[in-house]
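User: Can you model how FE2/S2 (inorganic) cluster sits in this protein?
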Amino acid sequence: MALHAAEGNNVVIPLRVPPATGVGEVEGARYRQKDERGVYISMVTDDTSDLDKMIEETQASIIEDARETFSEEVVNRWLNPKNIGKIEDPDGFGRVTGPCGDTMEISLKVKDDRITKALFMTDGCGTTIATGSMAADLTTGKDIKEALKISQEVILDALGGLPEDSRHCALLASNTLKEAIKDYLAYKRDPWKRVYRK
Ligand code: FES
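Assistant: Here's the modeled complex, given as structure tokens:
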């Protein structure tokens, strides 16, 4: 794995998987593994020769930890998220920031009150990604009334559950979906008003 960027004495290396355990930063860390969402692992070492191997081993151990804590469905969506992105000129758009500070966006394409496409974006952690991805999957193909029934519990069930302290991620996903549907309904009759929306 190639080095990505340098920040002073910290070498920053891309990492796709946020850590499931060991939250915090190693004191005096010289190296950091960091993913595109800003989650990183820090460590103290002077041995750069075997850095790639160390990173691979760390990633493998993170994934192993994650498999003990989360369902297969969650881990798969975390590692290979589906439905990430933003629809250009969406028919419905929602953006919500949860109490934890993470933000999610969901954009919808709708035809004859049926959702034909749903994409999400988030700056949240792995479980937030899994819930956004699942919310978008559950939404696609549903009519608006059915989509409004996609609650926190529905998303949690589809993911095979989440630990207590991650359940709020599913609430963020369902709330964001509701905002996107509300946006669609608000402009349904007068789509030209979108031009003036804030
Ligand atoms: S940790 Fe904030 S929404 Fe998941």
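A couple of observations from the model: The pocket of FE2/S2 (inorganic) cluster is lined by residues 98, 100, 102, 124-125, 127-128, 168-169, 172 (CB under 6 Å). The radius of gyration is 19 Å.
User: Helpful, thanks.
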